[in-house]
Write a structure and sequence with these properties.
It contains 11 helices and 17 strands. The protein is an alpha+beta fold and 441 residues long. The chain has 3 domains: 74 residues, Uridine Diphospho-n-acetylenolpyruvylglucosamine Reductase, domain 2; 110 residues, Uridine Diphospho-n-acetylenolpyruvylglucosamine Reductase, domain 3, CATH 3.30.465.10; 207 residues, Vanillyl-alcohol Oxidase, Chain A, domain 3. It has a 7-stranded antiparallel sheet. A 5-stranded mixed sheet has the order 1-2-4-3-17, with helices on one face. It has a 5-stranded antiparallel sheet with strand order 5-6-9-7-8. Strand 7 and strand 8 form a beta hairpin. Helix 9 packs antiparallel against helix 10. Bound molecules: flavin-adenine dinucleotide (FAD). The site of flavin-adenine dinucleotide has 34 residues, from helix 4 and strand 9.
Length: 441
């Protein structure tokens, strides 16, 4: 094997560093390869086939825990040209596999441009797009995957290809929402938006007013303009220095969001102003580069577990049910119980989009808590069970791919005809089932 495709086995130095994952799961693959070139990816795939190993693509390991056992698998972590390149005239980003969001957001912002990134600057750009990509510009501009112009890939047979609307259109469709089961992506090109400044921010209140905050916010979401995308959370904030002092270590309720149109943003803030005295509230014009950190997602590895579901036709009874299960009196220890607002462009089918051509549902519900040891894990599991049982009447039965939990499959995310099409495409590009991914087909 060449230097660009060194194989690391468990007896080799560097194995433990190479198997480390953002979610701190204890993954122990048969072998690991961190190729730095496209030829290195080809070599690694050839090696896996020769050894009878499967292949699991990975960048940061944000969802490593959701992968199946890896004892007969090569963990393939392409790190190819991590310097994003921006073409301002074309409003196009070209990003190598292994790159995380922060450098891309910063490089785009230097040209007054923004990408449809999500709430974490340390999530991998390729993995995010492969699972749809839901962010604070979503209700105005839809899912990120449908801004992709092209993927460059190595397929299971070791062939290199460019995949776009005109080349391998079926594979292009599957990669936009179907995850990492079809090929190893070595680079991605996607459209950027001419957004250098937005209106955005966050408000935090004591958890005691959770019902009032949720009721006002839900009411506002029913007629909200597409230019605004927001999220509601009940949070147990950790006592860390990175958390602003007024809310550090506190049980709070929060709303944050972004308005592409400043007038719409101000109208939201005036609704929120009427609720109760916030502990902390900061809204106003902000550089689009700051949007990636607005949600305060953890940027360092953290052992967390969660659950998620799409919810629909939310009635007023959901307010009391959610607050009773997750609010101050519930004893919930979850870091966040969240409802992310969907609708707008996210719910309109993108005629030229991928398998994730929309997200069906009014909100995506998400709960996340610590699993540092068996005790915290058990508590988090009990909290998740209680909360998801409480919102069961409004669960649509579907999941959003990027938030789907371990044990889910693609069937939980897409309708039967899309699943049949994905299976056919998988069979065409990976007939022997070389690839493993968090959500199987
Ligand atoms: C804290 C946090 C915040 C998040 N916020 C958002 C959000 O706001 N919006 C949203 O939509 N999602 C969000 N997600 C979900 C996230 O986008 C997905 O989990 C995504 O798959 C992570 O990609 P990764 O590369 O960082 O993780 P990894 O675990 O490294 O990869 C995830 C999967 O992507 C595939 N993959 C990665 N790289 C390649 C490649 N080069 N070729 C082929 N397949 C590949 C593989 O199947 C892999 O198993 C969040 C997740 C976390 C943990």
């Amino acid at each position: 094997m060449s230097d660009a495709a060194k194989i690391i086995r468990d007896s080799d130095p560097g194995y433990h560093e190479a198997r480390a994952a953002f979610d701190l799961c204890d993954q122990r693959p048969a072998a690991i390869c961190v190729p730095t070139t496209v030829a290195g990816v080809q070599e690694a795939i050839g090696f896996a086939r020769g050894e009878g190993l499967k292949v699991a693509n990975q960048a940061t390991g944000h969802v490593a825990a959701a992968l199946p056992a890896l004892e007969d698998t090569l963990l393939l972590k392409p790190m190819i040209n991590l310097e994003p390149s921006i073409d301002p005239a074309e409003r196009l980003a070209r990003v190598g596999a292994g790159t995380i969001w922060r450098p891309v957001v910063e490089a785009a912002a230097a040209h007054g441009l923004a990408a449809l990134h999500g709430s974490s600057p340390t999530v991998g750009v390729v993995g995010y797009h492969l699972g749809g990509g839901l962010g604070f510009y979503g209700r105005e501009h839809g899912l990120a995957c449908n801004q992709v112009r092209a993927f460059e890939v190595v397929t299971a047979d070791g062939e290199v290809g460019r995949v776009d609307r005109d080349h391998e259109p079926d594979l292009f469709w599957a990669l936009r929402g179907g995850g990492g089961l079809y090929a190893t992506v070595t680079a991605i090109e996607f459209d950027l938006l001419p957004i250098s400044e937005v209106f955005g921010g966050a408000s935090f209140w004591p958890v005691e007013v959770a019902e009032d905050v949720l009721a006002t916010w839900l009411d506002w979401t029913r007629g909200a303009p597409d230019s605004v995308t927001t999220s509601f959370r009940i949070m147990n904030l950790p006592p860390f220095e990175q958390v602003p002092a007024p809310i550090r270590g506190k049980n709070v309720v929060a709303i944050d969001g972004v308005a592409v149109d400043h007038v719409d943003g101000r109208a939201l803030v005036s609704q929120l102003d009427g609720i109760a005295e916030p502990i902390m509230a900061q809204w106003g014009p902000m550089p689009s580069a700051a949007v990636a950190s607005l949600h305060g997602d953890p940027e360092d590895p953290v052992p967390a577990i969660g659950n998620s579901t799409l919810i629909d036709e939310v009635e007023d009874e959901a307010i009391a049910a959610l607050v009773e299960a997750a609010g101050g009196e519930s004893g919930s220890t979850l870091i966040a119980t969240e409802l992310r607002q969907l609708g707008g462009a996210l719910s309109r089918p993108d005629e030229t989009g991928g398998v994730a051509d929309r997200v069906e549902g009014e909100f995506v519900a998400f709960g996340v808590g610590l699993a540092t040891d068996p005790g915290t894990r058990a508590r988090t599991e009990a909290d998740l069970e209680r909360i998801f049982e409480a919102i069961d009447p409004w669960q649509s039965g579907r999941q959003f791919y990027n938030f789907a939990i371990a044990g889910s499959t693609c069937d939980d995310c897409y309708p039967a005809d899309a699943i049949e099409a994905l299976k056919a495409i998988r069979h065409e590009y990976d007939p022997e089932g070389l690839y493993q991914a968090p959500l199987d087909l």
